[in-house]
Design brief:
With about 400 residues, this protein is α/β, with parallel strands linked by helices. It contains 14 helices and ten strands. Helix 2 crosses helix 4 and helix 12 packs antiparallel against helix 13.
């Protein structure tokens, strides 16, 4: 039997703050191997999380998680899921990307064989809260690319305004990086594995075109931001130029696109997506007032979900009680039919109708009370009295 109380929800959480990217990737691979209908997996640059509704009394083993991962159960899992949806747990508070990523993950879980109704309800409320939180914002929201530009300026010790910055990648994050660097006043160039996509992005944004491997002249760029879906393959001469110059290199890719051997040669001028997750809070923090408003929204939404779960418990108990009554009635009728094998059809039907009517009449008030059971008192009593 599946639990329907608040403790039904379990979250397995890994985040860049505590779990390295390689361990998160292994965890994600393990989750992809599991085909449980009640699970929903969320993968982003900084997190890999699974939400489950295991059978009552059953909890995922801690060995599922790498060191630094967390198992959240009940209200802690519920509040975390909603905090993720509203962007409260993001590197950039209130970011837009997480809402899209969460919606995509929910759709994927639903299309992959079904999503447990409890998780369906939880994330419907979470996505609604996320949209509400975004409606409070004035102007465009910040993205991880904005954080990358801020970190570049801190590492370089100067603004990127008027300086050349190269964006490698023309996907969604690459586009955000182009816009962030341009908004900071940089002279932006775009490179991509597929030149056509780089040309398209450059024409949309006014950026320049650069080769996917710029070669030894790469050191003319104040910074390079890499946002790829695969490795960034560059020649040894390009690596030597990066290592010998002052260029700051930020890799927003997940998994990382810049080889570790290259990163090590940059002597502190390499920044990974995981590094951005633990950047100074001053780069990503919001005002105390807006954070308090998000916290209130999380608490309200969690309370609404738990209230729904309480009513769901009552409805589940009502259904179980009805099923129990039907089983007992059927068993007694089967015994009666064996004792009266010559009973005519009309009498048979009359007894069937009378027994059904009597059961429904006796259960009408208990079932109605279970359907409107705000504190769960009737649900607990019914389960205890009838052994449900």
């Amino acid at each position: 039997m599946t639990s329907t109380g608040p403790d039904a929800v379990v979250a397995l959480v890994t985040h860049a703050r505590n779990v390295p990217a390689v361990e998160r990737e292994r965890f994600a691979a393990r989750l992809r191997e599991d085909s449980a209908r009640s699970s929903m997996v969320l993968e982003t640059c900084h997190r890999v999380e699974a939400y489950l509704v295991p059978p009552a009394g059953d909890r995922p083993a801690s060995e599922w998680l790498p060191a630094g991962g967390r198992i959240l159960v009940g209200e802690a899992a519920i509040r975390h899921a909603i905090a993720v949806a509203v962007g409260r747990d993001s590197v950039v508070i209130g970011e837009d990307q997480i809402l899209h990523q969460l919606r995509t993950s929910v759709d994927s879980a639903r299309d992959g064989g079904g999503l447990d109704p409890i998780l369906e309800r939880l994330f419907a409320l979470g996505l609604r809260a996320g949209r509400r939180a975004r409606s409070w914002r004035d102007g465009p929201g910040r993205s991880l690319a904005d954080v990358a530009v801020s970190v570049i300026e801190r590492r370089a010790g100067s603004s990127v305004r008027g300086r050349p910055v190269l964006i490698v990648g023309a996907g969604k994050m690459g586009r955000l990086a182009v816009r962030s660097a341009a908004a900071a006043g940089a002279s932006v160039s775009v490179a991509n594995r597929s030149p056509e996509r780089a040309i398209s992005l450059a024409s949309e944004t006014g950026a320049q075109i650069e080769a996917f491997d710029p070669g030894p002249t790469i050191d003319r760029f104040a910074a390079v931001i890499v946002a790829l879906g695969g490795p960034w393959s560059i020649a040894p001469a390009t690596v030597d130029s990066l290592a010998g110059g002052s260029t700051v290199l930020v890799d927003l890719s997940m998994p990382v696109a810049v080889p570790q051997a290259v990163a090590r040669r940059l002597d502190g001028r390499f920044v990974s997506a995981d590094d951005l997750a633990v950047a100074d809070a001053g780069l990503v923090a919001d005002t105390d007032r807006s954070l308090a408003r998000l916290d209130e929204l999380i608490a309200e939404t969690a309370a609404e979900f738990c209230a729904w779960l309480d009513l769901s418990d009552g409805r589940a108990a009502a259904a179980a009680l009805s099923a129990r009554a039907d089983r007992e009635r059927d068993a007694e009728l089967d015994l009666l039919w064996r004792q009266l094998p010559d009973l005519d059809a009309d009498a048979h039907d009359a007894i069937e109708r009378m027994s059904r009517h009597l059961a429904r009449r006796l259960l009408r008030e208990p079932l109605e009370r279970l359907g409107r059971d705000p504190d769960g008192r009737h649900e607990r009593a019914a389960r205890e009295l009838f052994g449900l």
